[in-house]
Specification:
This protein is α+β, with helices and mostly antiparallel strands and 285 residues long. The protein folds into two domains: 6-78 and 214-281, 3-Layer(aba) Sandwich (D-Maltodextrin-Binding Protein, domain 2); 80-193, D-Maltodextrin-Binding Protein, domain 2 (3-Layer(aba) Sandwich). The chain has helices at residues 6-21, 36-42, 53-65, 101-105, 128-134, 147-159, 174-177, 224-227, 229-237, 242-254, 259-269, 271-281; strands at residues 47-52, 69-74, 80-86, 118-122, 139-143, 166-170, 180-182, 216-221. The strands form three sheets. The protein has a three-stranded antiparallel sheet with strand order 1-8-2, with helices on both faces. Strands 6-3-7 form a three-stranded antiparallel sheet. Strand 4, helix 5 and strand 5 form a beta-alpha-beta unit. Helix 1 packs across helix 10, helix 1 packs across helix 11 and helix 9 (229-237) crosses helix 12 (271-281). The chain is globular, with a radius of gyration of 20 Å. The protein binds trimethylamine oxide.
Length: 285
C-alpha cells in the first residue's frame, strides 16, 4: 500500500525490493491514508509498512480486535506527530510551546490576512478538527494531500519569516533542516481519544496531545501469512530507527531522489542489514 508521505513510500519500495529478492510478486496500490483500514480489512491491500500511533492508533486497534489485521511488530523508531511551528514564530506568540498561547494569538496564523481565525495546515492524517473543537481553538484547517505540499508551503513561509503552524512529525528530515518545535497540549492519555468525560472538556474527546513518545508499527491483512508466509515474515523483520527514517526522507524530499531511487540507495548502503532480515525471515525460501 502506498500512502501520501515520503518515508512510507520509500519503505514500501524497499520492502518490494526485498520481496523481489525472494522472487515474491507484488503490486503497489495507492490508497489515501483515511481509507487504509477499509482496504486492509478486506484484503484489497495486504501490507502497511508504517502505522503511526499518534494519528492511526484508533483505526489500527479496532481492526486488530476484530481479527482483520495482524500486528507485524514495531520499528525501533520512537515517533511524534503534532502541531509544529518554526522558532521565529515564538516572538510573535509569547507563551509557546504551551497550547494556551494559541488562544491569544490565533490571528497571526491567518493565511489570508483577513480572517480572525488562524489556519492550521495539515495533510490527510490525524484528527485535528476534533482537537480544535475540544480545546476551543480559534482555528480553521487547510488540508493538503501529500507531504510534498506541506514542505512547499513551509519553505515559502520560512523564507519570509511568516508565522505558520502545521502538522509535522518526527523522525523526518524537516526537523533537521528547519529550526522549530511542537506545541504541547494537555498530556496524552488513551482515554482522551475515546471518552468525552476525560480531560478539560467534558463534552468532547481529543482534548489532549498525541503521544510524544509513540510507536511505529507494521500491519498486515490477516490473510497474508496464508498466502505467502515469507512475505509476512520479511515484514516482521523490517525495522527502521529514527536516524534511518530521517536519512531516507532527506534523500527524497531534500536531495530530490525519487522514492524508487531512495529505496535503491538504501538497499546499496545497508546490505548487511537487509541480508540479515531475509536470512532470519525465510532461510529456506
Ligand atoms: C503519518 N504521518 C507520518 C504523516 O504523520
Amino acid at each position: 500500500m502506498l500512502n501520501e508521505w515520503s518515508s512510507q513510500l520509500i519503505i514500501s519500495n524497499i520492502y518490494s525490493k526485498l520481496l523481489n529478492k525472494k522472487s515474491i510478486s507484488y503490486t503497489f496500490i495507492e490508497v489515501p491514508s483515511d481509507m487504509q483500514w477499509y482496504h486492509l480489512a478486506r484484503g484489497n491491500t495486504h501490507v502497511q509498512v508504517e502505522v503511526w500511533q499518534g494519528s492511526m492508533e484508533h483505526g489500527f486497534n479496532k481492526l486488530l480486535e476484530q481479527n482483520m489485521i495482524i500486528d507485524a511488530g514495531n520499528h525501533d523508531a520512537i515517533t511524534r506527530e503534532g502541531w509544529w511551528y518554526p522558532s521565529y514564530v515564538k516572538s510573535f506568540c509569547p507563551g509557546l510551546p504551551d497550547w494556551q498561547a494559541l488562544r491569544r494569538c490565533s490571528t497571526i496564523f491567518s493565511v489570508d490576512n483577513f480572517s480572525e481565525k488562524g489556519t492550521f495546515i495539515r495533510g490527510p492524517w490525524g484528527n485535528d478538527a476534533s482537537r480544535i473543537r475540544a480545546l476551543k481553538l480559534n482555528f480553521n484547517i487547510l488540508k493538503v494531500y501529500h507531504s510534498d505540499e506541506l514542505w512547499r508551503i513551509l519553505k515559502r513561509f520560512y523564507a519570509q519569516k511568516r508565522p505558520i503552524i502545521f502538522f509535522n512529525w518526527t523522525p523526518n528530515w524537516v526537523t533537521k533542516y528547519y529550526d522549530g518545535e511542537f506545541v504541547t497540549f494537555p498530556e496524552y492519555s488513551p482515554e482522551c481519544k475515546i471518552n468525552p468525560k476525560w480531560g478539560i472538556n467534558p463534552y468532547h474527546t481529543h482534548d489532549c496531545d498525541n503521544p510524544t513518545q509513540a510507536w511505529l508499527k507494521k500491519a498486515a491483512w490477516v490473510g497474508l501469512p496464508k498466502i505467502n508466509e515469507c512475505a509476512f515474515r520479511v515484514l516482521q523483520q523490517l525495522n527502521f530507527n529514527n536516524t534511518m527514517i530521517e536519512e531516507l526522507t532527506e534523500w527524497s524530499d531534500n536531495k530530490k531522489l525519487t522514492y524508487k531511487q531512495a529505496a535503491q540507495q538504501w538497499i546499496d548502503k545497508y546490505e548487511t542489514t537487509w541480508k540479515k532480515w531475509l536470512l532470519t525471515a525465510c532461510p529456506q525460501a
